[in-house]
């Protein structure tokens, strides 16, 4: 379905206006800080759980997929700190500290849910314990996904070496496949964004309704990461301004930018649904009218009005 330039302008203007009205900048800072506070607990809990499942390479795999698409100036300091934290000796899985890590990791998901509710202009109707369980479920899904990937990353190189020995003519193709880690990271990001937009906020949305904002977010993230890395390499001198806090400030500002662009994608989806609403309502009214004419004694539920 095409979209005229006039409609696109109205959608973009509504996106920017609602982002400001919905406290988008404040919500982006909330998301950034919550995600930063959730990263360490998530990896601690994931490492403990994956160790029980036999996925001993969980930590490097998670670090690899989380930070590979970040600019090196941002990813290197925090990934080094994470490695130090994860190599510290700990007790078993069912300790209070590890269970607390799972709870604190879910706070990052809760922040995303609250921000998405604002962006999609919906009110949360589910009880708090249900949303918390949903957030914990997302944490478990993330841990299991990284655990499976860590096992696959061990098996795939072995399979590729075996295939290279059996089919030497495919050497160049196999080498190209083994170097597609960034593409794999982007695919994981797209899947994670899709799950977040569909099931985290209140209400129901169809896949086609969230895809435009997801694509916009991915494009803006790539452009923003490149621009921020260029800025750091050319102009910024955070060490002189923040001294020992320089690395953490760089990460916070980067996450703040990612959070804002993430919410802009959700606002874009909400604006598209708003401007497409009347068209869908006319279609639903026509279908309801045809149903009444076909069966005058049936009760037909009329669609609700679309709010601006």
TrEMBL record:
NCBIfam families: yihY_not_rbn. This is YihY/virulence factor BrkB family protein. The chain crosses the membrane at residues 31-53, 93-112, 133-160, 180-199, 211-233, 239-264. Coiled coil: none annotated. Keywords: Cell membrane, Membrane, Transmembrane, Transmembrane helix. It is found in: Cell membrane. The lineage of its organism: Bacteria, Pseudomonadati, Pseudomonadota, Alphaproteobacteria, Hyphomicrobiales. GO terms for cellular component: plasma membrane.
């Amino acid at each position: 379905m095409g979209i005229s330039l006039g409609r696109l302008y109205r959608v973009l203007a509504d996106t920017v206006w609602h982002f400001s009205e919905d406290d988008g900048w404040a919500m982006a800072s909330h998301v950034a800080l919550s995600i930063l506070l959730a990263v360490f607990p998530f990896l601690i809990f994931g490492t403990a759980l994956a160790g029980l499942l036999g996925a001993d390479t969980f930590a490097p795999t998670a670090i690899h997929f989380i930070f590979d698409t970040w600019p090196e100036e941002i990813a290197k300091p925090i990934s080094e700190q994470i490695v130090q934290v994860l190599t510290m000796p700990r007790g078993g899985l069912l300790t209070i500290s590890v269970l607390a890590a799972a709870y604190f990791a879910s706070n990052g998901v809760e922040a995303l849910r609250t921000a998405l509710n604002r962006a999609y202009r919906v009110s949360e109707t589910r009880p708090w314990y249900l949303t918390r369980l949903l957030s914990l479920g997302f944490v478990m899904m993330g841990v299991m996904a990284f655990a499976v990937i860590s096992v696959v990353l061990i098996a795939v190189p072995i399979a590729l070496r075996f295939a290279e020995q059996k089919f030497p003519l495919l050497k160049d193709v196999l080498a190209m496949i083994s170097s597609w880690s960034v593409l794999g990271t982007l695919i994981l990001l797209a899947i994670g964004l899709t799950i977040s937009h569909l099931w985290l906020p209140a209400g129901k949305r169809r896949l086609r309704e969230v895809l435009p904002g997801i694509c916009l977010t991915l494009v803006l993230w790539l452009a923003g990461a490149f621009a921020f890395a260029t800025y750091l390499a050319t102009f910024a001198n955070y060490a002189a301004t923040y001294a020992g806090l320089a690395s953490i400030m760089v990460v916070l500002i980067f996450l703040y930018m990612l959070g804002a662009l993430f919410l802009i994608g959700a606002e874009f989806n909400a604006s598209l649904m708003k401007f497409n609403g009347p068209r869908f309502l006319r279609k639903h009214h026509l279908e309801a009218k045809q149903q009444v004419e076909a069966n005058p004694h049936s009760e037909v539920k009329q669609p609700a009005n679309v709010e601006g």
